[in-house]
Design a protein that fits this description.
This protein has one domain. It is about 90% helix and about 0% strand. It contains 4 helices and no strands. The longest helix is centred in the C-terminal third of the chain and has 29 residues. Helix 2 runs parallel beside helix 4 and helix 3 packs antiparallel against helix 4. With about 100 residues, it is an all-alpha fold.
């Protein structure tokens, strides 16, 4: 089962990056909702892919979006996925003690 989760998360990673890249300059509420739906699917499949996706989109946003306002906007609509990832990390650290 783990191989299927990895394979699906690998494909979803590139679909989500492509979706974000295509709509990065014109993110509307519907597009952000679709992005969140895909991010949750990726989160449920493989947490490492979710972390790598957030890092990839963050790096791409910093390198391609020229204005500070665009970068802050991108950070704002990616924040819920980051909070979900942070919550998972804190829960696993709490369980390790």
């Amino acid at each position: 089962m783990e191989f299927y989760n990895f394979s699906l998360s690998f494909a979803l990673f590139f679909v989500i990056v492509g979706y974000w890249w295509h709509h990065r300059l014109t993110m509307a509420v519907k597009r952000i909702g679709g992005l969140y739906l895909m991010l949750v699917l990726l989160y449920l499949r493989r947490i490492v892919s979710d972390a790598l996706l957030l890092a990839a989109i963050g790096l791409a946003a910093c390198l391609t979006l020229r204005s500070f306002r665009s970068i802050v906007t991108c950070t704002g609509y990616m924040m819920p996925a980051g909070i979900l990832l942070l919550d998972y990390i804190l829960d696993t650290m709490q369980g390790a003690e």
